[in-house]
Amino acid sequence: MATVELSFSALPVHVRTARLIVTAVARRSGVDEAIMDEVRLAVGEACSRAVEAHRSHCPDEPVRLELSDGDHRFQVIVSDSVPADEAEGGPPPTPRPDDSLELALAGDADLGLAVIAGLADDVEISTTPKGVQIRMSWPTDRPAVPSA
Amino acid sequence: MDLKVNDYTTDDGLTVITVEGEIDVYTAPKLREKLIDLVNKGKFHLLVDMEKVEFLDSTGLGVLVGGLKRVRAHDGSLELVCTQERILKIFRITGLTKVFGIHKTIAEAEEKRKGAK
């Protein structure tokens, strides 16, 4: 079970709130302050992408965020509710950071995914029956909390 | 924090846009509108001062790329002033340091502009 679960309406204004909560939980989980900006930015990008997808396909559905820690990792999962058959072409491939320049100038940029790929220590983008899920994680200075 | 966007034009015809706050999916439309408004007013040489930007995401990058395309259509330019490492890192990750001229100060940008004339 995630340490913190959050769902928010698919509105751009709430992405900032999500960033603030992620930063607070990451700090509490022992993420190094030196990489806190990277965590904040990568999660903000994933939330922005999900909000945009929801606004196009299912504006009334909330965006889901799961934050958990353990085994020296802080993990964030951002899930949207846009099934692959609705999102054209399914989940986007994770671009290499070097690809983004060409994409940006071609006017078809998914700069957000390029930023996530460049910032997160570990990234996995997958499709579930309910939508696209972006899982990211970063190291912490704490081991797993033993179960009681 | 709300995004503050102001601008002024130098005697040399360079329009400096100072941006303060967080540029994200919520606030980026304000910067986009400013850039479009300036281009519509015939201001094709733009310098965006990012020294007071506290956060920048890909939506903000997209707005800057969009602005660059608009001014280039008029043989103009869009360059940046930025020394903040956390902001510069985003430009480096996305390869956009190759696209934008990035200066340390407004004065430096003005000097290079005069030198290029």
Cα shape of chain B: globular
- The helix content of chain A, as a percent range, equals 25-40%
Based on CA atoms alone, the radius of gyration of chain B comes out at: 13 Å
Look at the structure and name the CATH superfamily of chain B.
STAS domain
| Annotated CATH architecture of chain B | 2-Layer Sandwich
Q: State the secondary-structure class of chain B.
A: alpha/beta
CATH architecture label name of chain A: 2-Layer Sandwich
- Rounded to the nearest angstrom, the radius of gyration of chain A is 15 Å
Q: What is the tally of helical segments of chain A?
A: 4
Overall strand count of chain A: 5
Describe this structure in words.
The complex is a heterodimer of chains A (148) and B (117). Helices cover 38% and strands 24% of the residues of chain A. Chain A is an alpha+beta fold and 148 residues long. Chain A has one domain (4-139): Histidine kinase-like ATPase, C-terminal domain (Heat Shock Protein 90, 2-Layer Sandwich), CATH 3.30.565. Chain A has a five-stranded antiparallel beta sheet, covered by helices on one side. In chain A, a hairpin with a 2-residue loop joins β4 and β5 (131-139). Chain A is globular, with a radius of gyration of 15 Å. The mean pLDDT of chain A is 84. With 117 residues, chain B is of the alpha/beta class. Chain B has one domain (4-116): Transcription Regulator spoIIAA, CATH 3.30.750.24. In chain B, 41% of the residues lie in helices and 29% in strands. Chain B has helices spanning 28-40, 58-72, 85-93, 106-116; strands at 4-9, 15-23, 45-56, 77-81, 102-103. Chain B has a five-stranded mixed beta sheet. In chain B, β3, α2 and β4 form a beta-alpha-beta unit. Chain B starts with a strand and ends with a helix. In chain B, 40% of the residues are buried. The model of chain B has no long low-confidence stretch (mean pLDDT 94). Chains A and B meet through α1, α2, α3 and α4 of A and α2 and α3 of B.
